[in-house]
Amino acid sequence: MSDWKEILEQLQTGEVRAANQDGNGNWHANIEAKQAILSAFKAGENEEFSGIYQGFVDKHNLPAREFSRDDGVRLVPGGSSVRAGAYVAPSVIIMPPAYINVGAYVGKGTMVDSHALVGSCAQIGENVHLSAAVQIGGVLEPIGASPVIIEDDAFLGAGVVVVEGIVIKKGVVLAPGVSLSASVPVFDLVNNRRLEKGEPIPERAVVIPGTRPIDGEWAKQQGLNMACALIVKYRDEQSDASLELESVLR
Questions:
Q1: Quick check: 109 and 88 in contact, CB under 8 A?
Q2: Cα–Cα nearest to 14, from 113, 90, 78, 72
Q3: Strand, helix or coil at 86?
Q4: pTM for this structure?
Q5: Residue 81 has pLDDT above 50, yes or no
Q6: Which ranges constitute the DSSP H helices of 14-97?
Q7: pLDDT over 80 (residue 230)
Q8: Under a CB-based contact definition with an 8 Å cutoff, are residues 68 and 74 in contact?
Q9: Torsion region of 40: left, alpha or beta (phi above 0 gives left; psi -120 to 50 gives alpha)
Q10: What pLDDT band is residue 52 in, cutting at 50, 70 and 90?
Q11: Are the C-beta atoms of residues 116 and 101 closer than 8 Å to each other?
Q12: How far from the centroid of its chain's Cα atoms is residue 122's Cα?
């Protein structure tokens, strides 16, 4: 068995992850795992699929996964797909239509709601809620680029977009419509500071979409503003109660 096949299988079982956390809590891309995924794409040949996937054409070695009751995953009918090489833990719920791409990791107790995307190599922790239309960006190139990280107990509201390797720490709440990328400034209104470019969103932060004036006299004359994100508070007991996930659903 070639190395890429072994690593792809280990990604799918959760033995290997596309990004790993060091002792200081920092995340780093697993370059070997990402190289294996790229090797799989190179080795793959387009194939017409049959059965429930009749009419689709994709790499023969990266088919959609099939689940059994023993996997403990609830994949609701209606157009969702999980690609080979993606790990989905027991008690995860996937509502239709949703897509989880190769190299992704989805921890136990997480909800992937309708029209949500978990991009290639994205790392989603335990008991995370990805609401409807959440878009988690994927990354395979450049090889050393870190994927998006969503740590445990985070809650992402409808239509949230997180891309370009942004790290969301434990317990963060992103309100509906928040968009985070390397170029979107984040202002912490509690601690009166602007986060450094690419700095992780701090644990238990509650983030809402915002705007700020654009520099330049002409832009000011036009009343123009640019998007930003605002940390308006940090979670408290009241916040936790309103966001408590229902174990009965899992």
A1: no
A2: 90
A3: coil
A4: 0.94
A5: yes
A6: 31-43
A7: yes
A8: no
A9: alpha
A10: confident
A11: no
A12: 5
Q: Is the peptide bond before 176 cis (omega within 30 degrees of 0)?
A: no
Contacts (Cβ under 8 Å, ≥6 apart) of 163: 135, 136, 137, 148, 180, 181
Strands 27-29, 19-21: pairing is antiparallel
Distance CA 224, CA 237 (A): 38
* CA proximity to 167, closest of 126, 204, 123: 123
> Looking at the predicted structure, is the pLDDT value of residue 249 above 80?
no
Three-state SS sequence of 211-243: EEECCCHHHHHCCCEEEEEEEEEECCHHHHHHC
Tokens at 2, concatenated: 């070639």
Alpha helices in 44-153 (DSSP H): none
In this prediction, residue 66 carries a pLDDT of 92
Checking DSSP bridges between strand 74-75 and strand 105-106, what pairing results, if any? Answer: unpaired
H/E element, 122: none
What is the average pLDDT across 177-203?
Answer: 97
User: What is the 8-class DSSP label of residue 7?
Assistant: H
Place of tokens 């400034």: 185
CA 135 to chain centre: 7
